[in-house]
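User: Hello! I'm new to structural biology and keep hearing that structure can be predicted from sequence alone. Could you demonstrate with Tyrosine recombinase XerS? Please show me the input and the output so I can see what each looks like.

Assistant: Of course. The first part below is the input, the amino acid sequence of Tyrosine recombinase XerS. The second part is the output, the predicted structure written as tokens.
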Amino acid sequence: MSRELLRERYEKEFEKLPDFVQKYLLYLEAIPRSTNTLYEYSKEYRRFLTWLLSEGIVHAKDISDIRLADFERLNKDKIVLYKSFLNQSPKRTFEGKTERDLSQASLDERNTHRLKVTVQRSITALRSLFKYLANEEVEEYDEQIGDYIIRPMLRRNIMVNIENGGVDASGEVRKDKIEKMLYLDSEAIDFVEYVYSGYGNTLTSRQAKTAYEKNRIRDTAILALFLGSGIRLSELVNTNLSDLNYEGLYVQVQRKGDTLDHAMISPIFIDYLQEYVEQREGLYNADDSVSALFLTKHKNVAKRMEGGSIEKMIDKYSTAFGKRTTPHKLRHSVGTMAFRKTKNLKTVSEILGQRGTSATEIYTHIVKKEKRSVINDLWT
């Protein structure tokens, strides 16, 4: 490949990436690094970010919209799953060689090629990016102290203890990990009630109790909408007050592909939403010009609540409740309960606003395990 063509391809990759990744690549250019290295790194970052989106680990319109806050919420398990994806993907191209080309080589040669070129190169590229982000400092306004502070771009580097070698987290392992974070049966209702009235009893400082009381009606309504409908985080964030329909028990959401849909809401959770809407204006100083359903208040001005804040909120409450979870796992909880009731993946995919049934097959795994448990204990 000519130097000019290589540069052109690199620049096209560069344009697709988030600004914080672009900043690191510009840093590498200044060292300097070769265009070939920059190109290979940019491809690996695109591959990783695309995987994060496809797995629903982060929520954005495309990879360029992924934020540093999304990286803050990653953990070692996610990287292990990504390494498994790299190991198992059957149609990936390696340095100009397709799987058909590699099939002519011996099995050992193909496995070595896959591991060395894919996993090691990907993890090396990610490790260098995370190290840079964890060491590079930025200035940020801290609302609690009312002043600017200096902090690392990334507060923790989860790549420090990640080995280059291949680690296989099978689909069954992944499903088992997800299952541990689900809220099923009465546990979902107990969790919502805990946020509504129980969490405050665990707090000792007056400041923490004041903050909890200020937002508990809103926070409970957010959980009620997640568990009552199974909508995505991005869909909830973008929901407006006018999208909520009490009589029809649904909320209008914009699904992937910009398709409008009516997400049905379980009536058991609707009262929490109604209570929040009735108090929304007074709690967040919202007038008719503020369209967002879920609000926060900054300098006494109402604004739409961001996805990162919602994820932190759910992490806080669920950790205190004793079962840490995420918005995406709450969505899985709804999917699992819906499959239990219907045994129909097509119905579940329609409830969740998915285009096909492949993403819902995890629920069959969970229900099969429950069946086995029932049979095992049938005569004991």
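User: So the tokens describe the shape?

Assistant: Right, they're a compact way of writing down the 3D structure. Reading them back into a model, for example: Residues 90-116, 166-170 have pLDDT under 50 and may be disordered.
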